[in-house]
Amino acid sequence: MASAPPSNSSAPVTVQNLNPKVVKCEYAVRGEIVTIAQRLQQELQAKPGSHPFDEILYCNIGNPQSLGQQPITYFREVLALCDHPAILDKSETQGLFSADSIERAWQILDQIPGRATGAYSHSQGIKGLRDAIAAGIEARDGFPADPNDIFLTDGASPAVHMMMQLLIRSENDGILCPIPQYPLYSASIALHGGTLVPYYLDEAAGWGLETSELKKQLESAKSKGLTVRALVVINPGNPTGQVLSGKNQRDIVEFCKQESLVLLADEVYQENVYVPDKKFHSFKKVARSMGYGEDDISLVSFQSVSKGYHGECGKRGGYMEVTGFGADVREQIYKVASVNLCSNISGQILASLVMNPPKVGDESYESYCAERDGILSSLARRAKTLEDAFNKLEGVTCNKAEGAMYLFPRIFLPQKAIKAAEAANTAPDAFYCKRLLNATGIVFVPGSGFGQVPGTLHFRCTILPQEDKIPAVVSRLTEFHEGFLDEFRD
Amino acid sequence: MASAPPSNSSAPVTVQNLNPKVVKCEYAVRGEIVTIAQRLQQELQAKPGSHPFDEILYCNIGNPQSLGQQPITYFREVLALCDHPAILDKSETQGLFSADSIERAWQILDQIPGRATGAYSHSQGIKGLRDAIAAGIEARDGFPADPNDIFLTDGASPAVHMMMQLLIRSENDGILCPIPQYPLYSASIALHGGTLVPYYLDEAAGWGLETSELKKQLESAKSKGLTVRALVVINPGNPTGQVLSGKNQRDIVEFCKQESLVLLADEVYQENVYVPDKKFHSFKKVARSMGYGEDDISLVSFQSVSKGYHGECGKRGGYMEVTGFGADVREQIYKVASVNLCSNISGQILASLVMNPPKVGDESYESYCAERDGILSSLARRAKTLEDAFNKLEGVTCNKAEGAMYLFPRIFLPQKAIKAAEAANTAPDAFYCKRLLNATGIVFVPGSGFGQVPGTLHFRCTILPQEDKIPAVVSRLTEFHEGFLDEFRD
Questions:
Q1: Domain-embedded: residue A9
Q2: Domain boundary among A289, A321, A354
Q3: Using an 8 Å Cβ cutoff, are B229 and B222 in contact?
Q4: Domain boundary at A354, A385, A409, which?
Q5: Do residues B329 and B378 both lie within one domain?
Q6: Counted domains in chain A
Q7: Both A381 and A350 in a single domain?
Q8: Nearest chain A alpha carbon to B317
Q9: Nearest-Cα residue of chain B relative to residue A230
C-alpha cells in the first residue's frame, strides 16, 4: 500500500509503540489474500495476458454490487430525489421517476426538520424514519417495536463496535462467539481489549448449535476468571450459511436469560433464506413468543442495508434495535452515539425503505417484486450450484447454504500439501487459497480467518458471482483442485 | 429519552458494570442543555404559546442546514445522478441537471469499478476520488499530495477516533489538546482510556498560543509519568474562532518535531475565514515550507464535508491525510479502516467535489461561486453582528470570530448568580445558559463543556442562524441578559 519505508527508531510512532490491541486485531476478509488479489488485478490491467486468467473474481466478501448485482430501482429513485429535492416539483421529474418514489421522497422530507437532508439528525437517527423502521419490525414480527429503541448507524459494523465498547471493561470480560464467526466480532473484541469465548457450531449437524456446548464453554471461561457479558449469534450464519431452527433459537434465548447474558443478534441476512423448509425469525420475536418481555432479557438486533436482496454496501446504512436495558444504560448508549453526531442520512433513508418497501397497489410494486425475486431466486440457484460443485471435489464436503451469502466447505488436504504449507510458513488453508488465486483469479478466504475446529480446514466462498460466471468458477476451481491434489498426493 | 425504568440489580448490564471509560466520557454539544431544548420544542409543538418564544434557535452545534442554509446545487446534482445513474442518458435529465454535473457524474462513475456506487470500496476510499482529493490538496498548498495518504471517513469524527485508538495504550499516554477545545477530543481520549494534557489558548491574545505554554504543559505531564504522544491543534479554532498566525503555526510544527509528537491538525474549517488579514494555511504546507518532509514530522490533517460553505453534515463525508508514518504503521491504520469496510460512497463523492469544485468555464461555475460567496459573506456579517452584540452586553467580552462557525464570549457573572448556580448544583455558565434557553429558546453551550481557564466563564454560540433572524437573537439575548443581571446584581 504505502511506498514509505518502515518506521525508523526515531519516528514518534512505530508498530512497537502503537496500541497493542490494534496490532493484535486481525481482519481476514480484507487480509493478505485480498492484497495479493489487488496486485494481480493491477498487473492484469497494466499487462493483459500476464496471468492465466483475465479477471479477478472476488468471492471473499459479501459485496454484491461489486460483482454486477444491480440496485433496486425504487430505492435509488427515492435516494436521488432526497439528495436533490429541488427537482421534485419539476415536470420532467415525472417522466424520469415513478410516481410512488416521488410521493415517498416528499413523505420522507416532511419527516426531516426543515427538509434538511444535509443536517445532522438526532443522534439515534431521524425520528420519522425510526417510526417507519419500528412499523416494519412490527409487521415482520407481530410484536410491538418502539422507535426509541432504534439506533441508526453507518452499517451494522459501527453498531457492533458500540456494543463491544459499552460491555468490555478489560481482558477479564468475555464475549461468547460462534466459531466459525464473521471476523468483525473477533476484531472488535480485540480492539476493545476483551476476550473472545468460542462456542463451536456443529458442522455435522448443518452448523447447528447445542446448549451443552454453550454451557461447557461458559463454565470453562468462568473457571479462568472471565466474566462473560454477552453471546453473539449470527442468523442466518456467516460464514456458515445455516438458518437456525426454532428450537435452537429458543434454547439460545433461554440460555441468555438463565445466565444473564446480553444477546447480540446479528440478523443482517434476514432476507437471505433460500430453502423452503426454513424461515427467518428474529430473536426478539422468539423471545416475545416465549413470553419474555423488556424486563426478562437484554437483546440487541443488528440490521444492515448491505445485505438482503438490495446489497447496498456502499451506502453504509443500518440500525440496532436495543431492548431490555434500563433507562440509565440507554442514556450511556445515546451518549456514545452522540459523540459521532449521527449516521449518514442517505443510509438512514435507505434503512427505512428496506424495512418498508413498496406495497401492493403502489406503482413500483410489481417491478420492485420482480427485481427482488429475480435476485433472491438467482442467489438460491447459485448457492445450490456451488454447493454441488464443492461436494463433487475430491476431499471436500460442503453443508447446504440455507441462507446468507456464503458457503464454508471443509477441505481435507494431503500431508504433502500440509508440509509444503509449513515450509512456506503459511496455514494450510491459506496455502490452498493463495495457490487457487494465483492459478485462477478466484479469491476465497481461508477458514483460519473465521476460526474452525483445530485440525480441520475450510474456506469461505461467496455465492455472489453473477449467474453467467458460475460455470466458469466451477470449471476453473475443479481443474485447479485436481491439479493441486495431483501435485501433492501422498 | 427511554421510557424504561432504570436498570435493576438483576439486569445483566447496569451503569455500574458498564465500561467505565464510556461512563466517564462527556459530550457537551449534545448534552443536558440540548435535551432540555428538545423537550421545550416538543412542548411548543404540542401547545403553541406555552413558552415565551415560538421556536428553539439551536446555536449549540455547527449544523448549518438545520437552520435553513441551502446546499450547493451543483454538489447535490452530482450526488443525485450518482445515486441513480439510470437517468444519466435520458433526455429529460438535461432539462433538470446542469451539463457539467452530468459530465462530472459520468467521470466519477468511470472511476468506480463496475460503476457500482452501492459496493463497498477500497478501505481507504475509491482510488479515483482520492486522486481528485490529492489534486485539490496540491492546488491548495503548492506541495505534492499522495492519494495513498488519503483515508476517506464518515466525517472527521471517526478519523479522530481512529488516530486516538492507534496512539493511546493506557492512561499513561497523554494527548496535548487546546483548552478550550471541541469536546470530540476530550470524549475520544476518554473513550480510548488516555489522558488529556491541556494547553491553554491565550484569550487576551485573540486565542493565540505560546510555545512556552506548550513546553510548560509537556514538562508537567512528563513529570507526572505521562508519555505525551500527540498534539491536537484546531485551526480555524473551535470553539474559539481564531485563525492561527503563520508564526504560531511554525512554532507548533517546530515544537512537534523537537518533541517527537504526532501533529493532529483539525482543519475542517479551512474554508471558513472571515477577515481579510488572515488566510488559512494547512499545517502540511507550513511544515513543507519549513523544509520538513515525510521523514521529519508525523502529521495528520482532518477535513470534513460538514463545514465550509457547503455544511453537508448529514452526508458524513471527510478524510484524513496521513503523512510521515512508516509503511508498517500505515498498514496498521489500513487494517483498522478495513474493519469498518469503508466510508459511505456519497460522502466520499462529496469530499472529492468539495476539494474540486466547478472551475472557470464550467456551466455551473458562476452559480456555484454566487452560492458559495453568498453563504460565506453572510456568515462573516453574522459573525460581526453577534460579536458586536456580545461586546455591548454588560460584563461580556468577545474576541473576533476570524473563522470557523463560533463565538466564545467570556462572561463575568455577579457573585449572587454564582451562588444561585451553586445552590442549583449547576456550573455558573450552565446556569446562565439554561436560564437563557428557558426565557428565549436560544441554545448556547456552557464554556465548561469545552474547558476554560479555572475561574473564568464562557459560552459557545454558533453564527449560523439565518441572517434575518439575527436581529431577534440579539434583541432577545440583550433583553434576557439585562434582566438576568438585574435579578442577580450584587
A1: no
A2: A354
A3: no
A4: A354
A5: no
A6: 2
A7: no
A8: A344
A9: B12
Query: Taking a C-beta distance cutoff of 8 angstroms, is the pair A284, A250 a contact?
Result: no
> What's the pLDDT tens digit per position in B39-71?
999 999 899 999 999 989 989 888 999 999 999
A240: pLDDT confidence band, cut at 50, 70 and 90?
very high
Do B244 and B375 lie in one domain? The reply is: no
* Sheet bearing A195-200, strands edge to edge: A150-153, A318-323, A299-304, A262-266, A227-234, A173-179, A195-200
CA distance B310 to B318: 13
Cβ(A318)–Cβ(A152) under 8 Å? yes
- Number of H helices and number of E strands within chain A? 17, 14
Whether A452 and chain B come into contact, CB under 8 Å, resolves to no
Does residue A204 fall inside a structural domain? yes
**Inter-chain CB proximity A22 and B76 less than 8 Å:** no
Q: 456446548: which residue's cell?
A: A213
Q: What is the pLDDT of residues B211-229, one digit of tens each?
A: 999 999 999 999 999 999 9
Condensed to tens digits (0 to 9), the pLDDT of residues A283-334 reads: 999 999 999 999 999 999 999 999 999 999 999 999 999 999 999 999 999 9
Q: How many residues does chain B have?
A: 490
User: Mean of the per-residue pLDDT values for chain A?
Assistant: 94
The CATH number of whichever domain residue A145 belongs to comes to 3.40.640.10
Range of the domain at A442: 31-60+377-488
ipTM: 0.94
Q: Are residues A421 and A282 both part of a single domain? A: no
Distance from CA of A292 to the nearest CA of B (A): 14
Please check whether residues A340 and A408 belong to one and the same domain.
no
- The domain that holds B52 is classified in CATH as 3.90.1150.10
**Is there a single domain that holds both residue B347 and residue B384?**
no
Q: Quick check: B164 contacting A, CB < 8 Å? A: no
Query: At which residue does the C-alpha cell 487494517 appear?
Result: B335
Closest in B1, B18, B315 to A166, CB measured: B18
**C-alpha angle with apex A220: A216 to A223, nearest 5 degrees?**
140
| Same domain (yes/no): B344, B471 | no
- From chain A, the residues in CB contact with B316 under 8 A are 154, 342-345
Burial label for B9, CB within 10 Å (0-12, 13-18, 19+), is exposed
Whether B238 is covered by a domain: the verdict is yes
Choose from A17, A329, A330, A354 for mutation: most chain B CBs within 10 A: A329
Query: CA-based angle A313:A153:A312, to the nearest 5?
Result: 15
Residue B124 sits in the same domain as residue B155: yes
Is B390 part of a structural domain of the chain? Answer: yes
Cβ atoms of residues A213 and A232 within 8 Å: no
**CB-based contact (8 Å) between B304 and chain A?**
no
B96/A96 CB distance under 8 A: yes
Q: Which of A58, A81, A90, A344 to mutate to test the interface with B (most CBs of B within 10 A)?
A: A344
